[in-house]
Amino acid sequence: MKPEEILLKERLEKLNNIIALGINPYPSKFEKKDQIIDIVNDYSKLKNEEKSKKIITTAGRIMSIREMGKASFFDIKDENSKIQCFIKEDEVKKKYKLYRLLDIGDIVGIEGTPFRTKRGELSVLVKELNILSKSLKPLPDKWHGLKDIEEKFRKRYLDIIMNPEIKELFIKKSKFWQTIRTFLLKKGFLEVETPVLENSTGGAAATPFKTHHNSLDIDVYLRISMGELWQKKLLVAGYEKTFEIGRQFRNEGIDTEHLQDYTQMEFYWAYANYKDGMSLVQEMYKLVAKEVLGTMKFKTHGYEVDLEKKWELYDYEKLIEEKTGIKIYESSKKDIEKKLNELKIEYEKNIDKWRLVDVLWKYCRKTISGPGFLVNQPVEITPLAKRNQKDPRKVEQFQVIIAGTEIGNGYSELNDPLDQEKRFLEQRKLKEAGDIEAHDYDESFVEALKHGMPPACGFGVSERLFAYLVDKPIRECVIFPIMKPEKS
User: Fold this and answer.
1) Residue 86 belongs to what domain range?
2) DSSP of 110-138, one letter per residue?
């Protein structure tokens, strides 16, 4: 019999013995009146005569047990803290039989009096003991824990129990999205919800997930943007500031920056342009860093970043020429392919010149620590953005550049329905030629634009920003990342 099978058998025997005592090992409720962190913080505030009379009722998971004959110490941990408990047979009477059947990993409820041991450690003298959940499988070894990264993801609940820094990571992530939401609400934005299932993919260049809607008997797609075209229809409807935070899906590769299923925020702001967007985004990013990290200076992915520095403007055309010698408007597709081959940069063979140019740009941006904004992108790369008034080859777009990567994208929204229709038709030709990431032609969106949409700025940022703030690969920042099924 394997060690884990022996352990399971032993714990099942203990479970049956608990039931034989007439005790339900899985009760439906426990009145937890005190959080452990509050017990710890409040004890020093009590007067001496109050300490012996104070009764606390709390609960948590047993993390360690130290036997001492007819008495014992054990530690319990709840969501925020842990505390040592002292249990004696003559204090709990018949419940001591229950205690002898407990293991590390069990969840218990206790009632007792706080006191300090001779060594000065705050503890609880247990007066009443309740089993709330009998664990049948042991926790990982305290010192070795879960080492394999795939096992950590698959059994994230154990990783969180054993590693306080992992628990703190997801508390920070919650604060990250709360800060963004609160910031936008205070700026007068309305939070909205737009469809996750769409008839056609819009708002980004990406490969979608496809599924079938049984009731309507139609194929639909999981959205690849945070309702970009829907939110712009709301601008047509008369809403002037909207945003959405939700899940979006792209059926593409996994790496340190990309996931298929992730959280994104997008806002749309009527009567503003990309310059207004840059100002608002800079303010928002600084606040997010301060709230999540407590500082605007941090190291991430091999770069040192200071968000308090002046945010630079990086010109798309000039930077590529400076770094590679390629003049993007004069060079042919073959010239760019040759340069990519020289630099040993991988690229897809069936994409057009401008997608190749963007692959070249992504090589160049690795040299930039930021913070700053990339501007003056070619119109062919961003078919939903308004053209630059001074140079119609380019668009009024801005991308946040931090630590050698893009962390946020926005632009002055195209509201000319005829120009939009023309660009959609050009994207359709690219798709027919084999570019699966080209934008779909959305006739309903063009129709909405024909009713008139005010000038506007739109912007989107995903949880990649959080991953860069905490200097981790993005997959490690997902509480339960999707995994291949375990082989039986």
Assistant:
1) 3-139
2) EEEEEEE-TT--EEEEEEEEEEEE--SSP
